[in-house]
Amino acid sequence: MKLMKCLKNVFFIFVILILLAPQSFAGDKYPDPEKYLPSHEDMQANKRLIDDPRSLNEKFHPSKILPPEIWAKLVFDIDEMKALWAEVVGFKAPDVV
């Protein structure tokens, strides 16, 4: 009897989580990758650029491909991060060494 009640509770919690999961991710809507990623035809037209890794930064750099709102979440200001890290840790390495 206790096992059946426990299984029923687990099933009920599982159903609630399944129903609520899509709603929790609905706030972070990103644009469809089909809209900003280069097409297969574009890649084939620039195959020489793709075969040479040094020249990928010219045309297919992530900052040029990704939408600005996604790129802003991936890139941070280095000087600001250094100052924030020193504040969080409480010291700067050159001061201690």
Q: Could you explain the architecture of this structure?
A:
The protein has helices at about 1-25, 35, 40-45, 45-50, 55-60, 60-65, 70-75, 80-90, 95. Helices cover about 70% and strands about 0% of the residues. The model has no long low-confidence stretch (mean pLDDT about 75). It is an all-alpha fold. It contains 9 helices and no strands.
Short summary of the structure?
With 97 residues, this protein is mainly α.
As a percent range, the share of helical residues equals over 70%
* Secondary structure: number of strands: 0
Tell me the structural class: mainly alpha
Distance between the termini: 66 Å
Strand content: under 5%
Radius of gyration, taken over Cα atoms and rounded to an integer in Å: 24 Å
Order of helices and strands: HHHHHHHHH
For the biggest sheet, the summary is: none
Shape: flat
Q: Low-confidence parts lasting 5 or more residues at pLDDT below 50?
A: none
Residue-averaged pLDDT, rounded?
A: 75
SS field, number of helical segments = 9
Keywords:
97 residues, mainly alpha, 9 helices, 0% strand
